[in-house]
Amino acid sequence: MSDASYKCLYCAATDLAEIEGFSRLVRVTSDCQPFRAGGRLFVCKACGGVQKRCDASQQAETQEIYRNYKIYHQSGGVEQAVMDSASGAPLRRSQVLAEHLVRQADLPAQGHLIDIGCGNGAMLDAFGRIRADWRLWGFEIDQTHKDRLAGLPRFQKLFTGNLDAIDIDVDLLTLIHSLEHFPDPVSMLIGLRRRLRQGGRLFAEVPDASLNIFDLCVADHVAHFSQASVTRVLRRAGYVIDDISTQWVSKELSVVASLAPADHALPEPSPDPERVSIVQRQVDWLGGVVELARNVAKSQKPFGIFGTSIAATWLFSQIRESVSFFVDEDPSRSGGTYHGLAVLRPFEVPSGSDVFMAFVPAIARPIVSRLGLASVSWHVPAKIEKAS
Ligand SMILES: [Zn+2]
Question: How many Å lie between the centroid of ligand 1 and the Cα of residue 343?
Fold first, then answer.
């Protein structure tokens, strides 16, 4: 469907293809609450960028979600853990990001950092522990976490409402899982340029939606980034990419950028003609995951879902009557309850149970191999079909 009043978030072309069947998919919010079906998903025919369209319905839904937002409610406000790729040990995501960032970006011993979309301060806290001589600032849509932020060492001020409210210049701008929420990321990043000192860095962490297909179901994510589209957005906004990695946190893109010189060339168009059919197959696959889980649950054995985040919540909301327990390796999640059900550590799962891995196959299989618990049937979603 083509509608000239809507432009691609990434390249500003007006020819967007709508993905069929997406509106029938149940969704989930970025703070892991089930959310009704009825969204729309588009792929730009010019650049292949995957995106929502910020029409009146999308805006109203986003406001509804933000009014009820509860960050990391599964673990009492503690952010999720990521599993260290070597040891499998749980580490806080912000700590992993801050350590990589300090190693990768050539940051001065002293400086000013503002975290855009700072939530309850996980990134500011993690960065401040590594760089004790930096002053910390935050931006959020509201004041919900003002007191908690004020308790962080060297925290200066929380700016709220509009990004224009920010009146300080910084050496480092961070956007941890916030860029994908903005209805116009290019304009937003252009606006932030004037706050970045010469030689300063921008760091953005976003879901890699080309790998983590469940990201498409997140109702308040407007941009569903790939390496190509996040690069395009930053370059169009006048930044150069210093480093882009998929290795810092699995299923996520970590991007370090700097202000581009004045003679910076805008990115050339690079069409991705296969993308519409790839995303169509991904949306069909999501429907198939629910069907597969329903079939597994028919065995009448104890049935659990592995995970307590986006994909697990999304799946649970559609088969909740079949689910007896959740499974999670993150110690801030296991031992408690989620949606009224116990969250078990993997080795606590009763023998003979069925556990459905709420992950894409490439993530699920290594977890099952690493756990090596043969007394439980671990079910991995089917592979995504390639084009014939
Ligand atoms: Zn585009």
Answer: 41
CA of 101 to the centre of ligand 1 (A): 29
CA separation, residue 72 to residues 304, 329, 336, 382 (Å)? 21, 16, 14, 29
Query: For the residues 61-89, what does the mean pLDDT come to?
Result: 73
Widest Cα–Cα separation across the chain = 65
Distance 144 CA to ligand 1 centre (A): 35
Contacts for 57 with CB less than 8 Å, ≥ 6 apart = 38, 40
Q: How far apart are the first and last CA of the chain?
A: 25
Q: Which residues share a beta bridge with 91?
A: 82
Nearest Cα to Cα of residue 102 among 33, 94, 359? 94
**Within 10 Å of residue 15's Cβ, how many Cβ atoms?**
15
Q: Which helix (H) or strand (E) holds 148?
A: helix 146-150
Residue 309: CB atoms within 10 A of its CB come to 18
CA distances (Å), origin 12, targets 8, 23, 224, 229: 4, 24, 16, 12
List pLDDT tens digits, range 325-339: 999 998 888 999 999
Ligand 1 centroid to 39 CA: how many Å?
20
How many CB atoms neighbour CB 352 within 10 A?
Answer: 11
Greater pLDDT, 78 or 159: 159
What percent of the chain lies above the pLDDT cut of 70?
94
How many CA atoms lie within 13 Å of 245's alpha carbon, on the beta-carbon side? 14
Q: Which domains does the chain have, with CATH numbers?
A: 75-259 (3.40.50.150), 275-379 (3.40.50.20)
Tens digit of each residue's pLDDT (9 = 90 or more) over 55-69? 889 999 999 998 888
Question: What separation in Å is there between the alpha carbon of 315 and the centre of ligand 1?
Answer: 30
Cα of 69 vs centre of ligand 1, distance in Å, is 30
Measured in whole angstroms, how far is the alpha carbon of residue 331 from the centre of its chain?
21
Integer Cα distance of 350 and 358 in angstroms:
19
pLDDT of the residue at 271: 85
Mean pLDDT (whole number) for 363-384: 93
Residue 67, SS3 per DSSP: helix
Q: How far is the CA of 43 from the centre of ligand 1 (A)?
A: 8
| Cα distance between residue 286 and residue 52, in whole Å | 17
CA–centroid distance, residue 227 to ligand 1 (Å): 14
Structure token pair of residue 254: 């970590």
